[in-house]
Write a structure and sequence with these properties.
Layout (H helix, E strand, L loop, with lengths): L11 H12 L2 H8 L3 H15 L4 E4 L2 E4 L1 H22 L12 E5 L2 H18 L4 E5 L6 H6 L4 E4 L8 E9 L1 E6 L11 H6 L1 E5 L8 H8 L5 E6 L5 H7 L3 E5 H8 L4 E4 L8 E8 L6 H16 L7
Parallel strand pairs: 3-4, 3-5, 8-9, 8-10
Antiparallel strand pairs: 1-2, 5-12, 6-12, 7-10, 7-11
Helix pairs in contact: 1-2, 1-3, 1-4, 2-3, 5-11
Length: 309
């Protein structure tokens, strides 16, 4: 008996063997697996050559398996059954059983807006999931490519191929003043706005913001007295001074009550901030990653600012 090397064996021939074993008739077996009768006869010939055995003998009663066919049939049937169950069954996913660490790249803006609600949902739905939040380098291209970040939350999209994205929410800009500020007692006109000292969230410590661009369009200019790299210190400065800061409303509403600040609409039209999530396409088919993205999306929807607030 010639030894068969599985590396050189055409595994599709096992489907032909299984059909012939079950049907004991070439015509019915061919119909069962979607082949023509000549094609199945050709497959049987190749199978006989590779296994060095006739496998099936033609008789008036139909095909009769040989002793070798009887030996291999149970194993072939079991193996093909396992393959079918693996490729045809729906994958099972239960977040309550998930043990995994997800890494998010974002600024402190994303942390303040998303993290509280996200952690609350994770504790309820997937208590064994851990979360790591890291800062992103500009757009986060390197982190997405390397897999260091599962998800990036931010404004500028990464400039690499195979990046997927989903808009989480839009945020408008509002201005914050301390509650006892003289300008808080009157409408915030453009003249009063530009006359105030301004604080600017500036991660790089330089450059203009959308406020400066909008003011230039009105041929006006403001005086920036402080630039800070993140949102954490800014409310404390506003609460202790007569300065004003213009920032996304979701963060402004979160800190206003805590620091006794008042929210005002800026006297100049400003574009909305569009915050999106970004991930690499290689994670599209990952059920756990998909569940996590949908969870972040749901939390983002919960942060929607209600009219009148």
């Amino acid at each position: 008996m010639r030894r068969v090397h599985i590396e050189a064996f055409d595994l599709n021939l096992l489907l032909a063997f299984e059909a012939l074993w079950s049907e004991r008739n070439v015509t019915r077996a061919a119909r069962r697996i979607g082949l023509t009768q000549p094609a199945l006869s050709h497959a049987l010939g190749r199978l006989r050559a590779q296994l060095d055995d006739p496998l099936f003998q033609r008789t008036p009663r139909g095909l009769v398996p040989t002793a070798r066919a009887h030996v291999i049939a149970p194993a072939v049937t079991e193996a093909l059954g396992l393959v079918r169950r693996a490729v045809e069954s729906e994958p099972r996913f239960d977040p309550a059983e998930l043990q995994r660490t997800f890494t998010i790249g974002t600024s402190d803006y994303g942390e303040l807006v998303i993290l509280p609600g996200l952690m609350a949902r994770l504790r309820r739905q997937a208590p064994d999931v851990q979360l790591v939040v890291r800062p992103i380098a500009v757009r986060g291209e390197r982190e997405l490519l390397s897999g260091a970040h599962d998800l990036i939350l931010g404004v500028p999209p990464p400039q690499i191929d195979d990046v997927r994205s989903e808009v989480l929410f839009e945020d408008r800009f509002v201005s914050l003043l301390r509650a006892g500020h003289p300008a808080a007692r009157r409408p915030l006109t453009l003249d009063r706005f530009v006359a105030l000292p301004h604080v600017l969230i500036s991660p790089q410590g330089e450059g203009d913001s959308v406020v400066d661009v909008a003011l230039r369009g009105r041929k006006r200019q403001r005086r920036i007295v402080l630039r800070v790299p993140n949102f954490l210190a800014a409310p404390l400065v506003i609460a202790a001074t007569d300065a004003v800061i213009t920032m996304p409303e979701r963060v402004a509403r979160a800190v206003a009550t805590q620091h006794r600040l008042v929210v005002r609409t800026p006297p100049v039209a400003l574009p909305a901030v569009v915050v999106s999530s970004f991930w690499h396409a290689r994670n599209d088919g990952d059920l756990a990653h998909q569940w996590f993205r949908e969870l972040v999306w749901a939390v983002a929807r919960e942060t929607t600012i209600r009219p009148g607030r």
